[in-house]
């Protein structure tokens, strides 16, 4: 429950200050009056709400939010008042964080604060897109439709995210298991052959491949812990670098330069931008505000900066397509369709079509990439294992022919 700092006077006129817990500012005033105190100031304790609205650890899954938006739209469409709808959804929520947030949202809306402004207080729960679409829906009288669109959009984004993760899960699993198996071979299995090949080594008949393998295995046994520490230090250094703006920019640039996968990641980012921008424009959000919100949806700083430059062009009365094309980060087909949308004044309809078309093409490429990546990883692991087996088998065969 929210807490409020208050300043009040008692019956004798003495000043009193303190903190009181209440569902709303109005309830806090009633509670103070019941204590025979006359409040002169009541304000919310900011330290209490920071945990929910400022701490990024308190987040709610996108799928949960998609269900919430749909349920709120259904309740409002059925004639249930906003306060009652928020109370019901807060009581029924299976997610503690969302339940607590909805209780605070209901309290603020009950005090007369607009729903969109209240949602903006909790960026870890409500996205900027959802907040601005709710504001536009409230002002334009189509709040239920706006909530439905937010819910559908959120569900679609979660579906796309799930498809991307599931597509890459098996290759990552193969790489991880393969690395563990090969490391175990080199550290625990290969060293057992070292003593068996002493006679060949003394005669100078040890194959170079086998000697190199045994030397590498001995190195891992003796200094493997140093390698692990070096990897850990490098990981911490990389993490420290990526925590800076320059580091994030470097990572985003590297992502776009990865062969094949870089184009896939870029196209998915452009598709997200087009879908968010089109959804916002279709719900009456002004284009400058829509661009400001949608540019963060790309998840890539280089693309975000390109869109920021395009925003300045729009502010100067110029077109959106020209600076996007000049950046070199947007496919020419997308830029041309945006240009057509601008000329026909139908960007709100064209952009979702661009996103859908781009997503379909990109996921076909992603599926093909994953299908090719799986046998490539298997082949690489098989070649490494075969090289280890041959390096150990050739000296054995030499020893048997010598005897």
Structure description:
The chain has about 400 residues and is mainly alpha-helical. The chain folds into 3 domains: about 5-45; about 55-125, Receptor-associated Protein; about 150-403, no CATH class. The protein is built from 17 helices and 3 strands. It has a 3-stranded antiparallel β-sheet with strand order 2-1-3. β1 (about 5-10) and β2 form a beta hairpin. α4 (about 80-90) runs antiparallel to α5 (about 95-110) and α8 (about 145-190) packs antiparallel against α12. Residues about 45-55 have low confidence and may be disordered.
Task: Supply database-style keywords.
single chain, 403 residues, mainly alpha, Receptor-associated Protein, three-stranded antiparallel sheet, 3 strands, extended
Number of strands: 3
Most strands sheet: 3 strands, antiparallel
Low-confidence spans: 47-57
Helix content: over 70%
Strand content: 5-15%
Number of helices, where a helix is a run of at least 4 consecutive DSSP H or I residues: 17
Structural class: mainly alpha
Q: How many structural domains are formed by the residues?
A: 3
Tell me the distance between the termini: 85 Å
Short description:
With 403 residues, the chain is mainly alpha-helical.
Task: Set down the secondary structure blueprint.
Blueprint: E1 3-9, E2 15-21, H1 25-34, E3 38-44, H2 46-53, H3 62-77, H4 82-92, H5 96-110, H6 115-119, H7 128-140, H8 143-189, H9 198-203, H10 208-242, H11 245-257, H12 261-282, H13 287-294, H14 301-315, H15 321-327, H16 332-343, H17 347-402
Antiparallel strand pairs: 1-2, 1-3
Helix pairs in contact: 3-4, 3-8, 4-5, 7-8, 8-12, 8-17, 10-11, 10-17, 11-12, 12-13, 12-17, 13-14, 14-15, 15-16, 16-17
């Amino acid at each position: 429950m929210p807490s409020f700092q208050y300043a009040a006077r008692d019956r004798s006129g003495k000043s009193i200050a303190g903190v009181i817990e209440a569902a709303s500012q109005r309830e806090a005033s009633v509670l103070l009056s019941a204590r025979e105190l006359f409040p002169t100031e009541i304000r919310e304790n900011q330290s209490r709400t920071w945990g929910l609205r400022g701490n990024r650890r308190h987040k709610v899954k996108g799928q949960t939010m998609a269900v919430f938006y749909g349920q709120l739209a259904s309740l409002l469409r059925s004639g249930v008042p906003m306060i009652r709808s928020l109370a019901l959804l807060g009581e029924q929520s299976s997610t503690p964080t969302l339940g607590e947030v909805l209780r605070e949202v209901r309290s603020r809306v009950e005090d007369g604060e607009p729903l969109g402004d209240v949602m903006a207080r909790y960026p870890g729960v409500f996205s900027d897109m959802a907040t601005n679409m709710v504001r536009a829906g409230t002002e334009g009288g189509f709040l239920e439709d706006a909530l439905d669109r937010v819910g559908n959009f959120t569900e679609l984004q979660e579906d796309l995210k799930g498809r991307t993760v599931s597509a890459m899960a098996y290759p990552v699993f193969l790489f991880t298991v393969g690395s563990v198996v090969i490391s175990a071979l080199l550290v625990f299995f290969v060293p057992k052959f070292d003593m068996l090949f002493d006679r060949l080594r003394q005669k100078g008949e040890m194959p170079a491949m086998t000697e190199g393998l045994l030397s590498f295995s001995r190195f891992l046994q003796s200094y493997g812990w140093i390698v692990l520490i070096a990897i850990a230090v490098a990981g911490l250094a990389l993490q420290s670098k990526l925590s800076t703006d320059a580091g994030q920019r470097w990572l985003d640039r590297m992502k776009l330069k990865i062969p094949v996968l870089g184009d896939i990641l870029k196209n998915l980012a452009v598709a997200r931008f087009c879908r968010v921008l089109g959804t916002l424009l279709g719900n009456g959000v002004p284009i400058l505000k829509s661009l400001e919100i949608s540019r963060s949806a790309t998840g890539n700083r280089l693309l975000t900066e390109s869109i920021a430059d395009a925003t300045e062009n729009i502010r100067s009365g110029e077109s959106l397509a020209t600076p996007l094309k000049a950046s070199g980060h947007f496919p020419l087909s997308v830029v041309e369709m945006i240009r057509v949308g601008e000329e026909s004044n139908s960007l709100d309809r064209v952009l979702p079509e661009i996103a859908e078309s781009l997503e379909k093409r990109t996921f076909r490429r992603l599926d093909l990439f994953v299908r090719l990546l799986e046998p490539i990883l298997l082949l690489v692991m098989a070649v490494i294992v075969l090289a280890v087996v041959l390096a150990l088998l050739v000296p054995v065969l030499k020893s048997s022919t010598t005897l």
